[in-house]
Amino acid sequence: MGHAQSAAFNDKNQLKSSDLILPHDDSSKLVEKEKKKQSKKLLKQGSIRKKLSRTLRPIKSSLYSKQIRDLVQSWSITEIQLLLKKYETLEAVRELKFLSDSARSINGSLQNDFCQLFYSKHQADTIIEYKDTLFHVHKIVLISRCQYFRSILIDINHSHVKIDCDVLDVNISDFIDLISYIYCGYTNNNEILKTISVLEEKFGLLNTLENDMQKLFNSKERTDLVISYRNGQKNMFCEYSEVLKPFDPTLKVDCHLSIVCSRSPFLKRLFETKYCNQTELTIPLLLEINDHIVPQPFLHVVMECIYFDQVSFNSIFNEKFHESCNNNNLVYVEIAMKVFEIGQFLEIPSLMRGCEDIIVSNLSATSLIKILEWSSIDSKYVYRQAIHFLREEFIPLCKSSFFLANLSKIHLLKVLESDFLQADEETILDSIITWCEWEIAKSGNPTIILTKSLPRHPCPKRYNITNDALREMVSSLVGCVRLSHILTQNSVILSNACQQGLLQMPFTACDVVSSEKKLSSTVYWIEEMHHSDYVKPRFFIPYFNEIKLIYQERLTENKNTCDVNNLPSTLVEIPLSITTCATSDERQSMPLVDIFKLSEDVIKNMVTRQKELMSSEQVLKYLTLAPDNVEIIAEIQLRVVREFDYPDELANEIFQQYPDLVENFTNIPTKRSTLSMHRAAGNDCFSPIL
Asked: Residue ranges of the BTB domain (predicted)?
């Protein structure tokens, strides 16, 4: 198992061969296949997005409509228009926030790993000679992917093969692109696709990479590695023995060393360390693994992901699991979490992403608490999706005693601080008080068991809770309630809170909609009034929809309304110097991240990616609502650093603390995908030429 020597590759060919972009040739059958594959991926992402983007169910919608109508009935159309504009701006930020929360690195995909396998020449077992130039390749990849190379290599045992130039009359650079396309299924060279189309009968029309690797895994053709478990080990997952299929303790999996090493850097290092000093190796190699590391039921799941980027648990469950409906959702999530940790240990990003998608798609009232606790440590992506789910489904979730009694204060505070929490302020206040009552009840009676069998009444017995203890507990959260935006007249919840001394305020929110305060209620809702009591409204969808309807009704009634740009003197907006750069005081308080450890190319690609997003039609539309809105720009910057797999704090460092550095790259062309440029720059690509 020798390691071929690597030679430097010229920059032009390196960039060209590493750029994984689909060609734009609609007439090509290959392109159509690739488009179908990408469409399936987009549909899968869309289904997850649809689940997480659900708007509030029509709970008390008529009540919310009446509340907002009572608030604005005496407002002028200009004031209503200003509030509507604020809501539209918040809607834009909400959409961009969802996109930034959904962003994550795409490193470690099957295509990227196979592209890197070709250029690194790791575990290459065959040398192809083409036009007096030698190329290190992997026989198993070529014969499983291409009919032409299969006919040449299948019966040849020696490692040096000369290719007939009469069949493939292309130059060296195109030949490299051809082999790269066979490995990863992508190319930006349309000439190669035309050559393959012309030679379709002899060369063989390529299937998708995933399909070919699935066939290879099932056929076990020319395997050189056997994975088995150590003798005498017992299954470590007895807790799931009732729902998992029984597995043979002598289970062995035949696979291919080069493919396994290309997908798992951990296993690659393991084999290099174990066999680095051995000149002669016994084929196939034997790898004995510990059931503590990769439990036996999950080995097949791991191997499926290694070979064709599919993560599915359907094959490991027995009929009893599929027949039963109780707790299936939670069991599915728990197993996905365990497989995610296996992916972390083996360093297989695609396995981790697949488990994240499974966890997110199984978000529900029963699984949310466990997902929040787990993801806050293990997966930032899942945590962002779980918080999003909690924001969207806050009202129905808080009606569950089990949920409120088990919800952590950290997660509760996270959603309460959001401008996009889908709940009215009265419901938020009531949920906070109920949550605090549960916390006090738990601290005073440790024997309380927090299970789904909790009593159905919404809170513990109030006579066991003193006002002093409740006041102290509520004080740390009540600041998140926008009390002046409680629209319920004579609110019992607000009145009781004031009587118990839980709130300290110079006015009650009920006064805002009373006859005495009705004319001045705009100061709490409209920023342009420049009142000290102004509070930014939450983007609560029922309020937003009703405001749009009211505005259209007013327009119909009065066609001679004033424009937003021609406001009365009391509503003239004072221009604010909002920029994308932080102030000097903000810079001093920001955490320091050494961005100079990043290469200039990485920073350039990140800045270019920001420019691509900023110039998109969607973002330009949003910026017309609020040209200086720093929140829109901040969400785009967060999306960029997450796509490049860096901490969120890096956005402040690159885009705010060092604006001069950003300006150096303002004229970067954006013809190609920046993420593809990042993949090319991030991989240590070497020439396959000797």
From this structure: 124-191
pLDDT tens for 253-277 read 999 999 999 999 999 999 888 876 5
C-alpha 114/C-alpha 20 separation (Å) is 11
In sequence order, the 6+-apart residues with CB closer than 8 A to the CB of 168 are 130, 175, 178, 195, 199, 203
The residues spanned by each domain of the chain are 56-107+377-559, 110-208, 599-661
Which residues are paired to 289 by β-bridges? Answer: 229
pLDDT at 578 over 70: no
Cα angle 322-254-149, degrees, rounded to a multiple of 5: 115
Phi, psi of 289, rounded to the nearest 5 degrees: -115, 165
3-state secondary structure 590-649: CCCCCHHHCCHHHHHHHHHHHHHHHCCHHHHHHHHHCCCCHHHHHHHHHHHHHHCCCCCH
φ/ψ bin of 155: left (φ > 0), alpha (ψ from -120 to 50), beta (otherwise) = alpha
Which CATH number applies to 110-208: 3.30.710.10, 3.30.70.380, 3.40.50.1240, 1.20.120.80? 3.30.710.10
Sheet (strand 225-229) strand order: 252-255, 225-229, 285-289
Closest CA to 313 of 367, 355, 371: 355
**CB-CB contact of 136 with 2 (8 Å):** no
Note the pLDDT of residue 264. 94
Q: Which has the higher per-residue pLDDT, 434 or 603?
A: 434
Burial class (CB in 10 A: 0-12, 13-18, 19+), 329: middle
**Alpha carbon separation from 17 to 12, 416, 571, 680, 688 (Å, rounded):** 9, 49, 59, 9, 11
Residue 387 near residue 302 (C-beta atoms within 8 A): no
pLDDT at residue 456 in the model? 46
Res 330: pLDDT: 86
338's tokens:
């365990």
Q: Is the pLDDT of residue 19 over 90?
A: no
The 3-state secondary structure of 43-68, one letter per residue = HHHHHHHHHHCCCCCCCCHHHHHHHH
Question: What distance separates the 2 farthest-apart alpha carbons in the chain?
Answer: 95
Residue 323 neighbours by CB distance under 10 Å: 8
The strand order across the sheet containing 160-162 reads 133-137, 126-130, 160-162
- Higher pLDDT pick, 10 / 128: 128
pLDDT digits (tens, 9 = 90+) for 360-409: 999 999 899 999 999 999 999 999 999 999 999 999 999 888 899 899 99
Centroid of chain to Cα 518: 44
Cα 394–399–404 angle (5° rounding)?
Answer: 75
Residues 141 and 302: their CA atoms lie apart, in Å, by 20
3-state secondary structure of 434: helix
Q: Residue 557 half-sphere exposure, CB side, CA atoms within 13 Å?
A: 8
Checking if the pLDDT of 672 tops 50, the result is no
Cα–Cα distance for residue pair 331/354, rounded to 1 Å: 16
Compute the radius of gyration of the chain from its Cα atoms. 30
**Who contacts 4 (Cβ-Cβ below 8 Å, separation ≥6)?**
121, 124, 127, 136, 690
pLDDT confidence of residue 163: 73
- Decide: 9 and 686 in contact? Cβ < 8 Å: yes
Evaluate whether 539 touches 94 at the Cβ level (below 8 Å): yes
Which is it for strands 252-255 and 225-229: parallel, antiparallel or unpaired?
antiparallel
The CA distance from 141 to 143, in Å, is 6
pTM for the structure as a whole: 0.79
Give me the helix-helix angle, 425-444 and 467-475, nearest 10°. Answer: 120
CA 545, chain centre distance (Å): 28
What confidence tier does 429 reach under pLDDT thresholds 50, 70, 90? very high
User: What is the crossing angle of helices 617-625 and 630-643, to 10°?
Assistant: 150
Report CA torsion sign: 323, 329, 335, 336. positive
